[in-house]
Amino acid sequence: MSNAPATTPLSPQYDPTSTEANLYREWLDAGIFTADPGSSRRSGGKRESFVIVMPPPNVTAVLHMGHGLNNTVQDVLIRWRRMCGDEALWVPGTDHAGIATQNVVEKQIAAEGQTRFDMGREAFVARTTEFVTETGGTILEQLKAIGSSCDWSRTAYTLSPELSKAVREAFVQLHERGLIYRGHRVIHWCSRCLTSLSDEEAEHSEETGALYHVSYPLTNGSGSITIATTRPETMLADVAVAVHPDDDRYKHLIGKTLTLPIANVEIPIIADLEGVDPAFGTGAVKITPAHDANDFEMGTRHKLPMPVILSPEGTMANGVDAGSRVPAELLGADRFEARERVVQMLKHLGALVKIDPHTHAVRHCYRCDTVVEPRLSDQWFVKMKPLAEPALQAVRDRKIRILPERWEAVYINWLEGIRDWNISRQLWWGHRIPVWYCDACAHVTVSRDDIVNCPKCGGQARQDEDVLDTWFSSWLWPFSTLGWPDKGSVDLKAFYPTDDLVTAPEILFFWVARMVMGGFAFMDEAPFHTVYLHGTVRDMKHVKMSKSLGNGIDPLDVINLFGTDALRYTVIAGLGMGADVMLDPTDLEKSFAPGRNFVTKLWNIGRFLLANVGEETVQPLSAISVDRLRRSDRWILNCLNEAIRECDAALGPARPRDGVWTETELKSGLRLSEYTEAARRFVWNDLADWYLESTKSRLASTGDDRDVARSVLAHCFDAALRLLQPVVPFITDSLWRRLPVAIENRDAFIARAPWPVGNEAFGVEQEFELVRETINAVRQLRADYSLPPGERIRAHLDFGA
RNA sequence: GGGCGAGUAGCUCAGUUGGUUAGAGCGCCUGCCUUACACGCAGGAUGUCGGGGGUUCGAGUCCCUCCUCGCUCACCA
Fold this sequence. Notes:
Elements: H1 16-30, E1 49-53, H2 65-83, E2 87-91, E3 93-94, H3 98-111, H4 116-119, H5 121-145, E4 156-157, H6 161-176, E5 180-190, E6 195-197, E7 202-217, E8 224-229, E9 240-243, E10 257-260, E11 265-271, E12 284-287, H7 293-301, H8 335-349, E13 352-365, E14 373-382, H9 385-396, E15 401-403, H10 406-416, E16 421-422, E17 424-425, E18 435-438, E19 444-446, E20 461-463, E21 467-468, H11 471-474, H12 477-480, H13 490-495, E22 500-503, H14 508-523, E23 530-533, E24 537-538, H15 555-562, H16 564-573, E25 581-582, H17 588-591, H18 593-613, H19 631-651, H20 663-666, H21 672-700, H22 704-724, H23 729-736, H24 767-784
Parallel strand pairs: 1-2, 3-4, 9-11, 15-23, 22-23, 24-25
Antiparallel strand pairs: 5-6, 5-14, 7-8, 7-13, 9-12, 10-11, 14-16, 17-21, 18-19, 18-20
The protein binds one RNA strand through strand 8, strand 12, helix 7, helix 10 and strand 25.
């Protein structure tokens, strides 16, 4: 790449498609996105490190506007810091996305008339591996199309051998510390995915259902108790009815027994202080320990049996401890069908008292939307309270800031009430749990390495069938991608902790909070100091864009139509702090007009400048003494200083000065739309509309004043391009490399050029404002009198006596 | 049900510690193909700043209340 200005004039129209791909290839060939650990101050180098780890898209993902927004934001920050002289590293990668990917492949083989069980585990995993290998690179290739300046040599994948090693290390360490345990309890069960889910994976949604009032007769025939339930089919698994010990309606019945209708089982009436609210329903609660988390607690307290009456598939079945509670005619019925039939049966028995409409929150599987069933089962859990403490403290102490600030309260609230994390999934796609069981001596081995024989008795060891929650690998991402658990890793030393984490609020708990906990648990340090939660891309009706709803915009379509820079500029300029971005999928022309117009404007300023400033090298501004400058020169240089100030204020500071965010710092920075607007205002409203117009006659003349104008013009445009490089990297590079500015040691690429710095040496210029005001007044008069711009004023104006 | 946030021009949003005629982009209206740009230039219109009450010399900006949306958490069967 030559530094010499191109000799061919710029084409009248900027053509993004023919330039972007070539430029990106040049950048990659020159290695300008590759980070050097040796340059990081932490490794004895001279630069601050600035690191962002990309939220890894699902390995099967196809680029959508959400990715477009998320990655453009990260790229703007990385490009900004790179120009500021930091050793900038942006780590890309993909997530194997356990349950999501498994669902996709299961759908594929279902279309072939098969289930994963028909195929067998090994074949299914092989098939899935093949599938992700095929699609795996797509999303990353697409990220290149939007200009992402990632260090592709460090591309990571959560299911790679390296990261799998990290996952095992994390599991074993936590187990050694007593923070991982096997628990027998009620968990959320998805009967379609056939796996347990964590609390976060079972999403609440309000639904209008019914509250069924059912009468349970006393065994001695002296009356009955009416209970209320939203899930009547679960009554077959009832083991008791609980009342409040002080409830006068039921006090005298405590200790007596009821006969459970349909199941015909005798169950006790018990007193429970915590589990019963006498004011709700009838004040009497049926206890179903195997199918309700709350009832499980009560069942445990009172040492009650826990019969299971639902199969993994969600059909009625006499499971563990159920005896013959489920009558033959209901066996095999789907739970919702069973609900209807149980209600009918109760009606026939005269046990159904009434049905009230009732709205309540029902949990759904976050991947397939199936109603989740609470179900008793054995799972692996992580004890979260001890891990949450430092994560809470870090935000309270301002070592980590979360923007917009209101999310801090959400984060703190969640961590304060955190519950243990169910990490085992009954899936096949993922990291298999590193636990082996010995059938001979019942010894349980938790191991970093695969084992074949029981270390205790030498018998055959059998690995746990389950895999880990996909988020169990994600929460290690900021350090597993840098080489952990190898603590001698060069990258880990140079680049951990990272700086900003940029993502959407949806995964604050799934991912962000857990990464903070993971950072402290395994690295004794927060993984980043800033969490930037940006908005969601929505359509004009404020509906989140999604492929299934058909209201999405394909970023690649936009790139083909208007270019990458237009896409990037539009989303960044429209991105208020924490605000959603609204785009119209039915009118791309209109939606991306801000970006397209701006890119065109830049191009035309460049055309004018190159045609009028000429190709001979211009003097650097430092070679021009202040007395040679005109008012307009000093004015535009003032404007530039102001623009740089505004951009800096909107973007920074990049990191807390002393490791802790001060009150002022906390509220500063990451105002990407403000930064973009400040740069736009300078280059368009100040430079193009006023200064450039004012230089036209000077440029047409000859002599010293012409050189001054050429120099100031080139200087200002050069600075403007550098200010804008993070947002619109392609067009700024195209133009910048053609600028006839003499700069020593000038880098071939604007992405590596220094970030502009203000220069106060020219003094403050205020008189030019008078000129502008005068011109404005004249323009207003001309408009008022409808004088066309080209028409000269012949008649003298009579202002009256 | 708990917590949080928002309601400012037709649309999306800025409005810093309360202080002169409330701003930007897009849209709209008028006039211009002025030799960089009509994806442009110049000019212009539009807001009882959600309703009501209060504090103050003065409030979009502080307090109370109500209404409407949104987010988030939640074992009331």
